[in-house]
Amino acid sequence: MGKKVAVTGVGITKQSSVRHDVNGVEIINEAVRAALEDADMNRADIDAVVIGNMDHFEGINYVEAWSIDGNGGLMKPTMKVTTGGCTGSTVAMAAYYHVASGLFNKVLAIGWEKNSESDTTGAITTAFDAIWDRPVFAGAVAGLAVEAALYMHETGATEEDAAYVAVRDRKHALNNPFAHLHINLTIKDIMDSPYLSWPVKMGDMCPRTDGACALIFSSEDVVDDFPMPPAWVVAVANRHMYTYTADADFGSIDGPYWMTSLEAASKDIYSRVGISDPLNQFDMAELYLPYSFAGVKWMEALGFTGRGGGPELLRSGATDMGGKCPVNPSGGVLSSNPIGATALLRVADAALQMQARAGARQVPDAKLALCTGFGGCYWSDMLILSKDKP
Amino acid sequence: MADWRDEVEPWVLESRIKVPYTWTAGETGSHYLLELKDNKKFWGTRCPQCKRIYHVPKRNCPECFTECTEWVELGPLGTLRDYTIMRKAEPRLHTLPVPFAYGVIFLDGSDTGFLHLLYEYEEADLAEGLRVEPVFAEERTGHILDVKYFRPAKAVS
Amino acid sequence: MQPVAIVGVGQTKVEANKIRERFEDMVFEATNKALADAGMTIDQIDNVTTISNDFWDGRTISSMAINDACGSYDKNVSTAEGDGTFGAIYGLMRTLAGTFETTLVVAHHKGSESVMRLITNAMFDPIFERSMGIDAIASAALQAGSYMRKYGISEEQCAMVSVKNHGNAKKNPYAQLAMDLTVEEVMRSEMLSDPIKKLDCCPIGDGAAALILATGERAKKITEKPVWVKGVGYCCDSYHLGYRDLAGCDALVAAAKQAYTMAGIVDPRKEIDLVELHDAFTYQEPFWLEGMGFCERGEGGKLTESGKTALGSELPVSASGGCLSSNPVLVAGLVRIIECALQIRGDAGEHQADGVKTALAHGVNGPAGQSHCCWILGGEA
Amino acid sequence: MTDSEKICIDVLSGPDEEQPFHYAAGVYGSVFINELRDNKRLMGIKCPKCGKVYVPPRRVCPPCFVEMTELVEVSSEGSLYSFSVVSFGFLDPATGKEKPVPYTYAVIDLDGADNRFLHFLDETDHNKIKINARVKAIFEEERTGGLLDIKHFTMV
After folding, report:
1. Is residue D99 domain-resident?
2. CA–CA separation, C229 vs C226, rounded Å?
């Protein structure tokens, strides 16, 4: 069996729409040094580094090699993994496997983004097939909007239901000093914001953010070296189901799937951890919800409620701070979206929660956390973190 | 039965990825590039721990991970270490006509080399240890190519 | 390290332009070959690691093109972006982690779809280096010149590598450039960037490759000829060419040492029977062999000249023809591992070397050999 | 160096900087492109195992992992599975220029196909578009190869 793995250090940079004070390598270094300081480590203590990006987002190829001066990997084993929007969770999983394999004890996982340096929608469009998708595609916004339109059609859910998520996550962000957006909004504010791609409005979408995040993943053999209690990784799983965008099935209310990859990944990871009632078993969740509608429909795909039950679940307050299972105490993707780091930030914030050091956004007595990553063609990554050793 | 796949005329989409980028040099890089632009001067940073002087400047020492806050003026002359003469033209990449050379140059005072172009040289002169001097562009914009290239130093220093 | 073995391998022929195929077509072929080689079906694959590069593929999330074709539908899957040897290490980690018994690793590349010099230029820093127009050939030439001048390695010695590898390729049905060359022909070929001439360079081709890893007990059930992973090591040096000693290869020395230690190898000269090098340029054979400890520093040129690296001699190097004869970027590293596995199994066909018990597969990432990866493979557990 | 705005230098990629690519459609995709251009026919392919028809044709059925060879023609009419009216400005990476908006991005269930087809719909008032509406392809008069040999879809 593999080694048990824990997060033992967290570093998050200041996040904003433009970080002019640092270049890419320097923003990576800022996160790495914060993580090392948090873990009371030196660069010399790192066994290996794993980092990811989306090449055409930053115009940077071979990111692990390019960022070596800042990423801490100089004369160490260094690897790049990448899967688009879910790159951050892919990096986290890769760091988990680095340690679980028994090959390394202390591994640095890095996600970063300087969204300000390119045209985000133009860059995202290049993720899709040049022949079959790009001529008509409009990046993530329109790609998600067609799901939203169908969801409303199938369930009768409304734009106001979705706006609840946008309001909730941004309200949560007020508790998070690292969040990019600190704005208190109302459902009316969201409803009044202009359409980007009907039915998705400006207020429904995540921002573009410059920021970075670094985590230390450590083996059970060395967790006592660290000043903070470990946040254990209980399990990881993912599904990247679709190659052709035209195959993506957004689901019908009575069809076999609702959000295919998320349902398949949940089934996999829940069965390994023994989750049958996520709403009651998880104490909190950091979910990669890139737009508000995801916070309604995907809760159904994750099994927090039945199909079509999303609006009611939200309005019950169960996902608010103080509810049964607060979702995105950090403010989530709707408040900060440095794309290559976004999914890693979910893991970072869940780890802080498990370590009971999330400050004003702490969920009292949180012991079990769910994290997700989203990217590619409706792809899903999932990690479960725990306060107790699995 | 003949396989239809053998009969198909293959189609290829001639396209491109054309996304404009704006790479932020950051405070350290900006200071360096502005000094090139405004004063035709080269600056490096010194690591307070290992004392190594980095050119181009580093905000953080890649080895020690400490912040390099001390600026040190370097050059303008330097010494050539590695070099190669580029003979195969690629107009989409090259700012000089071939043959020109690439060199790794250690500016006087610097502990690290940096990549730049070499021009106005005799091929026989290119050697490790060659002293070189920068040729600045008339119009400078705050870019590494504000130095058009380096050439063998006229005066021996 | 727990025992893990390679239980199946597959590769496509490498060609200059597979205009009739997309990435997915090549990957489907390689995957099915690896499955057939292992006697497995896709249902028996527990998880998948893919290897591709967004710049080369002209597509962000390049793995999005091939997930169907590698059978990863409804499986755990992830993507490493770098040389195949690095991606295979990620596959190895996933196999060792206790969750999966079998891992499929696939890589694809179509050099025909992009402009090599523009793509490799983009691996350089956009603020301080890229605008000089430097590319893979020029950066390798800077290194070649420094190394060769420092140790008196001659261009003729490098040319001998080209002659040997393109000759070996004639015995490898998957190789792209199989040629009878003479040292004179290599020396007369067009000078691109001193001292690198056209026939000192690899071609950039189209191809895919796949291998299957399995945990110890499972591997023995799958195949009678498992090839065991004895040791791995990888290490990354400084990025900027001026920050490192270009005439040294410190990262390779460290990566090789790590792999030898894990494999219990004390003297590679005696204990390793064959090397598949990531030799994209001819100077890299003597250079990398020195770094791996097969001869003293500066003796690599003589080692090549002595003929000892030829197929049929003491230490066959790149018996497949190496990267010099076929270099679908990233795939090339995976093919180095596959070729070592075939040699150990005795299944390398016409380019089979005698008595290969232990072999070393090598891969490179980043400009001018910035990051190296070494795999030690053996026939016995 | 306190006023970071003042000292900030941005390095820009050149106005003509681009990475050219020759994206091969492969023989499967080329069948679709060629038939669309020459005969205004939309081709799909049928999985021998599950019987699903995919458009455009490709080699592998994802869930079955089997090779497909049976070409079938699918209709140029179908129903609207979902849509979005794109109204924000963004850059088209194939040209480096702003893409003209608004336009409607349509996900279409072509009759005879089991996956979907992505294209434009010519109506941009979201109130006038209904999911499940019948739509049909409008072909370009001069077809030169490529997805945009279909001009757009329109509601029947």
Report:
1. yes
2. 10
DSSP code, position C82: S
DSSP-based three-state secondary structure for A62: coil
> Which of chain B's residues have a Cβ under 8 Å away from the Cβ of C134?
102, 115
Please state the rounded mean pLDDT for residues C125-150: 97
pLDDT tens, residue by residue, D124-142: 999 999 999 999 999 999 9
Does the distance separating the beta carbons of D59 and C74 come in below 8 Å? Answer: no
Average pLDDT, chain C: 97
* Both tokens assigned to C258: 């790590």
pLDDT, residue D3, reads: 44
Domains of chain C, each with CATH number or no CATH? 4-115+204-222 (3.40.47.10)
Q: Is residue A124 part of a domain?
A: no
pLDDT, tens digit, for every residue of C183-205?
999 999 999 999 999 999 999 99
Domain membership of residue D127 (yes or no) is yes
- Whether B55 contacts chain A with CB within 8 A: no
Q: What percentage of chain A reaches a pLDDT higher than 90?
A: 96
Residue partners of C25: CB distance under 8 A and separation at least 6: C18, C69, D26, D28, D59
Binary contact (C22, D60; C-beta < 8 A): no
| Partner residue facing C24 (CB), from D20, D21, D58 | D58
Q: Is residue D17 part of a domain?
A: no
Dmax (CA) of chain D? 68
Q: How many domains does chain A have?
A: 1
ipTM over 0.85: yes
Residue D82 contacts A where some CB pair is shorter than 8 Å: yes
Structural domain of D80: 23-155
Chain-chain contact of D84 with A135 (C-beta, under 8 angstroms) = no
Cα A29–Cα A34–Cα A40 angle in degrees, nearest 5 = 125
Q: What is the DSSP string of A132-178?
A: TTTTT--HHHHHHHHHHHHHHHHH---HHHHHHHHHHHHHHHTT-TT
Task: Determine the Cα–Cα distance for residues C168 and C299; give it in Å rounded to an integer.
Answer: 23
Tell me the CATH number at A57. 3.40.47.10
d(C-alpha B99, C-alpha D40), whole Å: 52
Q: What are phi and psi of A15, to 5 degrees?
A: -120, 135
Chain B residues with CB-CB distance to D29 below 8 A:
11
What residue spans define the domains of chain B? 26-152
Q: What is the torsion angle, in degrees rounded to the nearest 10, for the CA atoms of residue A173, residue A174, residue A175 and residue A180?
A: 50
Contact C63 A240 (CB under 8 A): yes
User: In this structure, are residues C147 and C285 in contact, taking their beta carbons and an 8 Å threshold?
Assistant: no
- Give pLDDT, residue C216: 96
Q: Which domain holds residue A96?
A: 5-119+210-219
DSSP type of residue A38: H
Which portions of chain D are predicted below pLDDT 50?
1-5
**Structural domain contains residue A47:** yes
Among residues C244, C269, C276, C238, the alpha carbon closest in space to that of C377 is found at C276
